[in-house]
């Protein structure tokens, strides 16, 4: 089990935390160095969502023809090349292409690793295996946060370090992940991707969760510094705490085994919405409490979605994971845009409370 889980965690860390989310962390320094305005920085950041969705759509096709081992290598290579490109970028065009290239890795990594777990681990270990691999994002945030703290003014060096770690992880996965031939979709790939009625409920749950959580990923740090008066050090501490607590999401597999998917999902939705309200309380302690709740619950919920998808779409688990994460990504893209509009029209308080209430509508979804 460890032979699959540890390199999988490392690959998710490189693709998600370094390749996708680190740009938002270093955006102020990168924008200043390349003389980018807010509109250009935001447009470049949105490229990660577009890349994410495109790679999620193509992942099942490639896995069906070439196998998950090939797609894992593809994910690692795109992440490394994207990180190197960001480090060396001298203008907005090179930066945009590099961010897009790094973003592609995320949509390839998750379905391929889900397929790997399904092929290599015994059925009773698969929920735990998928849950722990999913915590790679949190492990990566734990690494990227302190590096930002230490090398804030040397963002190019930081991205070179990210790329070096990515090369090691790529070679590690290439060496230890077996090149097992997966069971192909017996019908046309598009027929296999058509969700059933229970599958539609899963996609709706992912879409709503992505939408409601988007305001936190996009605006929580700005809210702390601009309205609550937190220092940059406190904001980075907030980011690190959120990452550390996300590691607790690795327990999702055992929790699902004990209380089943339905109760696990409802518990996650309640805690996620509550975290959006707690951050509004006027103290740094409340902010850190919110980070603890959001970090652990978001990773927990995405682990629930992975397990839910693998059970609905067996044996074509890469298709289920791709569709679930595609819905999550679309929800985040739409939610981020709507959150910015709501904050501009009203206030941060109203926006966070609105998104918290919207998240609770996920409780109405029937889980089968």
UniProtKB/TrEMBL annotation:
One of its GO terms (cellular component) is plasma membrane. Residues 5-368 form the Major facilitator superfamily (MFS) profile domain. Gene3D superfamilies: MFS general substrate transporter like domains. Signal peptide: none annotated. It is a multi-pass membrane protein. It is found in: Cell membrane. The chain crosses the membrane at residues 43-63, 70-88, 94-111, 132-151, 157-177, 198-217, 237-255, 267-285, 291-310, 317-339, 345-365. PANTHER family: CHLORAMPHENICOL EFFLUX PUMP RV0191, PURINE EFFLUX PUMP PBUE. This is MFS family arabinose efflux permease. It comes from Paenibacillus amylolyticus.
């Amino acid at each position: 089990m460890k032979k699959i889980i540890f390199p999988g965690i490392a690959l998710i860390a490189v693709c998600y935390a370094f390749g996708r989310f680190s740009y938002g962390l270093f955006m102020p320094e990168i924008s200043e160095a390349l003389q980018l305005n807010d509109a250009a920085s935001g447009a470049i950041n949105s490229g990660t969502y577009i890349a994410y969705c495109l790679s999620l759509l193509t992942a099942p096709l490639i896995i069906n023809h070439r196998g998950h081992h090939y797609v894992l290598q593809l994910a690692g290579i795109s992440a490394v090349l994207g990180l190197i490109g960001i480090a060396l970028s001298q203008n907005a065009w090179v930066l945009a292409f590099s961010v897009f290239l790094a973003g592609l890795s995320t949509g390839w990594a998750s379905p391929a690793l889900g397929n790997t777990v399904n092929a290599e681990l015994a059925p009773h270990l698969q929920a735990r295996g998928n849950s722990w691999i999913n915590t790679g994002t949190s492990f990566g945030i734990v690494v990227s946060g302190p590096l930002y703290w230490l090398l804030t003014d040397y963002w190019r060096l930081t991205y070179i370090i990210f790329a070096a770690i990515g090369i090691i992880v790529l070679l590690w996965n290439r060496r230890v992940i077996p090149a097992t031939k997966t069971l192909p979709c017996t019908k046309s790939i598009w027929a296999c991707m058509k969700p059933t009625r229970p599958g539609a409920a899963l996609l709706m749950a992912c879409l709503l969760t992505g939408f409601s959580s988007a305001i936190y990923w996009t605006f929580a740090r700005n809210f702390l510094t601009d309205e609550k008066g937190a220092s940059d050090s406190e904001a980075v501490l907030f980011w690190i705490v959120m990452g550390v607590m996300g590691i607790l999401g690795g327990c999702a597999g055992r929790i699902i085994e004990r209380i089943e998917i339905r109760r696990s999902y409802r518990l996650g939705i309640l805690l996620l919405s509550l975290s959006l309200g707690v951050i509004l309380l006027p103290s740094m302690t409340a902010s850190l409490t919110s980070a603890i709740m959001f970090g652990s619950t978001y990773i927990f919920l995405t682990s629930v979605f992975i397990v839910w998808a693998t059970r609905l779409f067996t044996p074509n688990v890469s298709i289920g994971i791709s569709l679930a994460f595609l819905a999550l990504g679309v929800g985040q893209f739409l939610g981020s845009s709507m959150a910015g509009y709501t904050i501009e029209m009203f206030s941060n308080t109203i926006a966070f409370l609105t998104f918290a209430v919207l998240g609770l509508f996920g409780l109405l979804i029937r889980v089968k």
